[in-house]
Amino acid sequence: MLSRFANSAGELGLSFKPRRRNYRRPDMHDHLGPTGPKRLLALDGGGVRSAMSIAILEKIEGTLQRRHGNHDSFKLSDYFDLIGGTSTGAILAAALATNAVRASELRTLYEELTRDVFRRGGQFDEKRLGQALERIFGSKTLGGEMATGLAVVARRVDTDSTLVFHNNPEGPNYDDAPEKAALGYARYPVANVIRASTAYPGEFAPAQVKLARLPHLEEGLFVDAGFTPFNNPAFQLFLLATLNNRGFGWTKGEEQLLVTSVGTGSLCNELSPASNRRSSRAKQAQRGLNFMIDGAEHTGELLMQLLSEPAVPQETIQEFGDLRDARLTPEPQCTYQRYQAKLTAKTLSDEFGLGLSTRQLNRVRNMMDRDGFQIAYEIGQAVADTLVREDHFPAAFNLEPLTAARAIKPADKAQAKEPEAEAEEAPAETVKDMTTSRLAKLAESPALRRSPLPTGLPRR
């Protein structure tokens, strides 16, 4: 059986050399403690267009996996110390941080969710969203076991405030506040917190999250945080991690803090006077909302670039131009890079070699059209191939390597005599060579048998 598998792998150009995990997998104290350097991942909201983020995350994960010995158990939750998101970006962030899924597993998870929640005609199904979140995250709470730090941006309407839920015991509001009869974040169900961040105004009723013990203070009302200045949550997460009164206490600096930001496509809402005159009041109101969201994104991006020196700066506000040599502080406060694309036919063609029809472009620009999932995913692949570079993740942020002494311990040698038991217990934690039984399991993996993704968008 193994010989047949080896032949098939060879025909596909695959190599299955025994690999060792060459890094120490951080625990939660490593991830959330103040000792650096630290790595932060911020994920935009964008409805169905979060498929674009998933493709970019797959590229990032592959790049970092090769950096760290190409071990098959590598996950983004190993590398990033805090993964945060807004709206649908919060769903992806929680799946990575709470369930410790690989980026390659996100595609199936999120595609199934969009099929359930986003109905044909651009309608939402609120009940199905709640069921999907319960199915994915179960009864887990922010104070429960997780793989790394998690932050979720939410907009609370009954107090007119923007909150960042998190799982850091040293952070604000984590513990109960008996004097206020308030529950701490540690008790909040992950599914409820995400539901609070994804309550799209006009489609979902405000999400009710239990916040206190007293009957008259039991619930807070939340709407989709995509309608705040923090749909791109990078700046908000930067503040959470570095402000003195936030409890994280992470050190700022170019070699101390890495911030990676992943977008879901910018609409670039250009409007001619003639088109505006022909538009209905409802259409004008929708455009006004889009202008507000894009403006907030540009402001957040402007601030992050002024605090850093991104390798590939983006033009956020035309009047300011290229911000390559502009900075608010004498020294960069972090290493920062954002991956984003303007969803216009010209940009997608000129910068990423994609030829989209008008119908395809309109479909992907509508974040509620579930049939735009595959288009958004393929745009994300093109963006990742063009923009994601290994030098965006400097060596200063590499995970701590395993020493030779730690790589082969007496316990490991004892386990090597029983390969079947080792494979069943914790293959992700081992650093010895891949056993025959483990290779056999890989041969049966559906992931290896899966056919390549269809390429529906023509490349120029």
UniProtKB/TrEMBL annotation:
UniProt KW Transmembrane helix keyword: no
Domain of life: Bacteria
Listed GO CC annotations: membrane
GO biological processes: fatty acid metabolic process; lipid catabolic process
Feature: compositional bias, Basic and acidic residues: 410-420
One MF annotation (Gene Ontology) recorded for this entry: phospholipase activity
Protein name as annotated: PNPLA domain-containing protein
Organism, as annotated: Parvularcula marina
